[in-house]
């Protein structure tokens, strides 16, 4: 029986890892990339050295720089482009996506300027029923997924049928997939946790210990939930894989780009130098700017985000940011937690 066809746009670390998951589920996968060199390497050597140097990719993954070739006839189209490139990639792909194709995105961020979530960007560019779009998120480092280490994620869609289709497409013995109807919550959680991961790297880079990081994660989750609920999310989402699960993995792992970037900032490196040395997109930087604007728009207090915004864009020192957080006014924890989670205390 002929394999199903999937297209993955683009061939970064996460797109490549998810392409391998789809290949394990008997999809013929075409990875689209703008780089001819990268496409040749994937096709000849079955490797993507720049993003996942140690991984050997399945033979059923091919690469192409031709969008029409990559997308035409695909039953599933996975968007894994950076948030800054999502609209452009979707616009290029739109003419070739079939009406019945399942469209999934796995990008954690907001569009700069418009502050739109990725499903909103995709629905505007792809047309059709926006409820059919699916977001894939959760605690998942590409480096572990591509090695088939146990990973559990969530797929969210306004359409339960679409969510279950995505669940079937991605679930393997190594890659467990839950469904969730809360698209807003899953997208907000996935985006904002990158800010907290920057803060965790910054805290570790300053030599602070586990006590500081535990407090940062706990109060960071509160900021994520406050903004998410103001935008219409279900608070239960933040206690699940897309919320606390993704927050923990991103704030505590050497694989996390955002953690590494925060650690380098703590060493006194300028933001431009950090981004140049990383050589990959650090979504938390753009997201900090977006969340700073969203917090004002929705009237949500986000002190960690505010301090990181000042470090990234207002030349504040990392150490003074921590001092400002520790010096905030006294408060009652139960009252604050009740407010964070929309409960009456």
Automatic annotation (TrEMBL):
What is the active site of this protein?
193 (proton acceptor)
Query: Which InterPro entries does the UniProt entry name for this protein?
Result: 6-PGluconate_DH-like_C_sf, 6PGD_dom2, G3P_DH_NAD-dep, G3P_DH_NAD-dep_C, G3P_DH_NAD-dep_N, NAD(P)-bd_dom_sf
Reactions catalysed:
sn-glycerol 3-phosphate + NADP(+) = dihydroxyacetone phosphate + NADPH + H(+); sn-glycerol 3-phosphate + NAD(+) = dihydroxyacetone phosphate + NADH + H(+)
Pfam families given in the database record:
NAD_Gly3P_dh_C, NAD_Gly3P_dh_N
Any idea where the Glycerol-3-phosphate dehydrogenase NAD-dependent N-terminal domain is? 6-162
In alphabetical order, the GO MF annotations are:
glycerol-3-phosphate dehydrogenase [NAD(P)+] activity
Coiled coil stretches, renumbered: none
Q: Can you tell me which residues bind sn-glycerol 3-phosphate?
A: 108, 138, 140, 193, 246, 256-258
Tell me the ranges covered by the Glycerol-3-phosphate dehydrogenase NAD-dependent C-terminal domain, including all copies: 182-323
Q: List residues binding NADPH.
A: 13-14, 34, 108, 142, 257, 281, 283
User: Any idea which UniProt keywords this protein has?
Assistant: Cytoplasm, Lipid biosynthesis, Lipid metabolism, NAD, NADP, Nucleotide-binding, Oxidoreductase, Phospholipid biosynthesis, Phospholipid metabolism, Signal
What family name appears in the similarity comment? Answer: Belongs to the NAD-dependent glycerol-3-phosphate dehydrogenase family.
Describe the task this protein carries out. Catalyzes the reduction of the glycolytic intermediate dihydroxyacetone phosphate (DHAP) to sn-glycerol 3-phosphate (G3P), the key precursor for phospholipid synthesis.
**What is this protein's record name?**
Glycerol-3-phosphate dehydrogenase [NAD(P)+]
């Amino acid at each position: 029986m002929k394999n199903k066809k999937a297209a993955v746009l683009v061939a970064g670390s996460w797109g490549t890892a998810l392409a391998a998951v789809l290949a394990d589920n008997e999809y013929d996968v075409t990875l689209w990339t703008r780089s001819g060199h990268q496409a040749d390497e994937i096709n000849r050597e079955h490797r993507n050295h720049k993003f996942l140097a140690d991984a050997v990719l399945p033979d059923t993954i091919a690469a192409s720089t031709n969008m029409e070739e990559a997308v035409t006839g695909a039953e599933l189209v996975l968007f894994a482009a950076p948030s800054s490139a999502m609209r452009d990639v979707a616009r290029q792909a739109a003419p070739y996506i079939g009406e019945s194709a399942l469209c999934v995105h796995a990008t954690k961020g907001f569009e700069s300027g418009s502050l739109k979530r990725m499903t909103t960007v995709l629905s505007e560019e792809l047309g059709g029923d926006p409820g059919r779009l699916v977001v894939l998120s959760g605690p998942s480092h590409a480096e572990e997924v591509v090695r088939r280490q146990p990973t559990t994620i969530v797929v969210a869609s306004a359409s339960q049928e679409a969510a279950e289709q995505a669940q079937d497409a991605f679930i393997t013995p190594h890659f467990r997939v839950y469904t969730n109807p809360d698209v807003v919550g899953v997208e907000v959680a996935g985006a904002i946790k990158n800010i907290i991961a920057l803060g965790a790297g910054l805290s570790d880079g300053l030599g602070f210990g586990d006590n500081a990081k535990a407090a940062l994660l706990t109060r960071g989750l509160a900021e994520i939930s406050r903004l998410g609920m103001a935008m219409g999310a279900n608070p239960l989402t933040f206690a699940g894989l897309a919320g606390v699960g993704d927050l923990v993995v991103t704030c505590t792992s050497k694989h996390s780009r955002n953690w590494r970037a925060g650690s380098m900032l703590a060493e006194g490196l300028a933001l431009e130098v950090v981004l140049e040395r990383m050589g990959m997109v650090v979504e938390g930087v753009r997201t900090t700017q977006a969340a700073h604007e969203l917090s004002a728009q929705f009237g949500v207090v986000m002190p960690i985000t505010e301090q990181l915004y000042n470090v990234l864009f207002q030349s504040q020192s990392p150490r003074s940011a921590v001092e400002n957080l520790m010096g905030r006014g006294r408060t009652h924890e139960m009252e604050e937690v009740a407010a964070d989670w929309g409960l009456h205390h």
